[in-house]
């Protein structure tokens, strides 16, 4: 399809690798969004990353705003992270026994983040959230959880549930293979809706173990919630003795060292992290007060374990990365850069009357093809607007800019994006928008 923009970059080698990959993996990928189903062309096979750049198998170079979906807040192949990982690897890669590195990363986190007193490392965000849910159920002795339409919490059974019809419903499974009986324990309601939350608690009085929300929902567009709503959420959880879980797998250490909890000044009962704490290696984590965490085995009756949990190489990457984030002014500089970037794209679009809103918080941004001033629920997003994203995505690739291959995904700015690259990227975005709205 010719969208009238720049000629397409060569994807010959990527296409060849993709054909091969299809023999090995369903859809040719190991995680569905990578298959480029919502955008033009075959997926790009990435060969190398450095700073804010990635190179694909055909040698095309891109300024990367996907950042491995968030972990790379210092950019690709950061020297400090690489050196620490290389050093630690000399001593072996996994022991299945405690190491001092776990203490070191835990200390960095707990000393600088008032929202967790004790933590447990896992190997992915999915595991962290799944375990947090089990902990909430074990702690409260209740089974039901409330989640929000438009929030993603990984792919564990209880959380692959979407809203059914009606205001307050049991969820419906959003994946084949999830038993209906599991979905029955998950209540799904719209974001930013105090009435739905109140009704859910009325209907399932004394049955709700926890309410789980993404600190700032960033998996279905960027759905900024009002601080009053988050406060309401905390109050109603307290009132009903349900736990409040903040899933900060994206927002943790991204908005600031204390994530969305710090941003709102609200203390969740359990927090989950991932992505950034692993510096690009597989790590997840959940944490809470010492009292709540005492329910985790071997201290308590809630079982949770992992062969590679606290893996030394992953811990090393986390230690090196978080140490950088604690340098004074780190977040201020990063967030200033990001807001300047987002606002100048917004100014450009507004001046040309393009139906585009740039939503952003910290160094997370989302380009939404809408004229709505606020988008706070999944329902506010017009699926038809994704056609425009599709054209923009292609134009951006052709101009050397890599965004995640879906219009529902947010972009990430890293410390490695300098003013020069952000200027280049802006110009490419302006030109691409001119094609989209031609
Ligand atoms: N929770 C949130 C908010 C996420 O964004 C993700 C992944 O994108 C997860 C959980 C699952 O993490 P992982 O992909 O590491 O299993």
From TrEMBL:
UniProt-listed InterPro entries: 4pyrrol_synth_GluAld_NH2Trfase, Aminotrans_3, Aminotrans_3_PPA_site, PyrdxlP-dep_Trfase, PyrdxlP-dep_Trfase_major, PyrdxlP-dep_Trfase_small
Pfam families in the cross-refs: Aminotran_3
Keyword Transmembrane helix part of the UniProt annotation: no
Enzyme class: isomerase
Record keywords, A-Z: Cytoplasm, Isomerase, Porphyrin biosynthesis, Pyridoxal phosphate
Catalytic reaction equation(s): (S)-4-amino-5-oxopentanoate = 5-aminolevulinate
Record-level Gene Ontology MF annotations: glutamate-1-semialdehyde 2,1-aminomutase activity; pyridoxal phosphate binding; transaminase activity
Tagged with keyword Isomerase: yes
Residues modified to N6-(pyridoxal phosphate)lysine: 275
GO biological process: protoporphyrinogen IX biosynthetic process
UniProt subunit comment: Homodimer.
Family to which the UniProt record says this protein belongs: Belongs to the class-III pyridoxal-phosphate-dependent aminotransferase family. HemL subfamily.
Official protein name in the record: Glutamate-1-semialdehyde 2,1-aminomutase
Organism: Pedobacter ginsengisoli
